[in-house]
Amino acid sequence: MNIEARISAFIQLADKIKRLSNDELEDLYSRAEAENAWFTKENIERALFGISYQLDEDKLNQWLSKYQLEPEIPKIVGIVMAGNIPLVGFHDLLCVLISGHFAAIKASSQDSFLINKIISWLLEIEPGFKKSLELRERLTGIDAVIATGSDNTARYFEHYFKDIPSIIRKNRSSVAVLTGNETAQELKALGKDIFWYFGLGCRNISKLLVPKGYKPDFLFESIQEFEPVIHHHKYRNNYDYNKSIYLVNSEPHLDTGFLMWRKTEELVSPISVMYAQEYESTGEIQDILNAHKDKIQCVVGRDYIPFGKAQLPELWDYADKVDTLKFLAAL
Fold it and tell me: Domain 173-300 in CATH: superfamily?
C-alpha cells in the first residue's frame, strides 16, 4: 500500500466510528467495561470521539506533509500499549501503520477488547493491513519499539530493548495555571481536564498553580456538575481511602465531597485529590514548570492549552514531546 491508500483507510475508519449504530455502541460499552471497570460509556465515547476528531482528511495531510514515509524496507516495530484510558495506544498504532512499517502489537490486558475492535474495523476497511500488523504476546524479533508504562516498567523496557531503537515512555501528569480571574465557563471547562477518564490519563490535570492567597470556592462551585464521579465505585474507593489518610494524619485539606484540595509542592496527586501550589510571579510559574518538565505532559491555562482541551490532542501533539513519526521515518 502507498501512503495515499493508508491515509484513505484511516479517514474511512473515522467515518466508520461516526456511523456506529446504537446497538453496536451499547455492545461496545458493555464488553469494554466488563474488561475494565474504569471504561465507562462516557469515557469510551470520549475516546472514540477523540480518534474521529484526529482522523480528519485535512489534519492527516497537514500532519504528514513534512515527513518522507515510504520506507524501502519496512521495519517490524513493537508497540507496548498502556491501558489506563480507553484506546490510549491508538496513536502509536496509527503512527506505525501510516509510516509504512509493520506493527507488532502488545495490547494491554486492561484495554484489549477495544484495541482489537479498532483493528478489526481497520482490516475490514483495508485488508491490505493484514500484512502490516499482528497482535503478539511477546515482542521478539523486532527492529524497534515504542513502549508506554510506569516508571518501574520503563526501567525493564530500557534494559530489555537496549539493543534496538526505542521510544520508552514513563509516568507523566499535567498542570493547569490559574490567574484567579477565570470565568465560570473556563473553570467548568477545566473540570473536563480534571475529571474526564477519572483523572487516570497523563493529560489529566493533577496539579494547579494558583496566585498567592487564592481561594478555591469559585472553582469548586464551577466544577460542581462533575459531582457524579463520586458514584463510580472505583473512584469512590480512592476518595474514601485518601480522605481517611488525610484525616488520620491530620493533614490540612479541603473537601468538596467528590474532590479534595491539598496545598503541596508535589506534582502527581492521587485519584480524587487536586494538588495546588501558590506562586507570586510569572517567573516563579516558569521555574516550577521547568523544575518538573520531564514529568509534565501538558500545561493548561489562558497562555497554554485552552481549558477543556487537554484530552483532545492533535495528531502532532506527541506524547512526552517525542516526535514519533520522525523516529519511525529514520528507521
Answer: Aldehyde Dehydrogenase; Chain A, domain 2 (3.40.309.10)
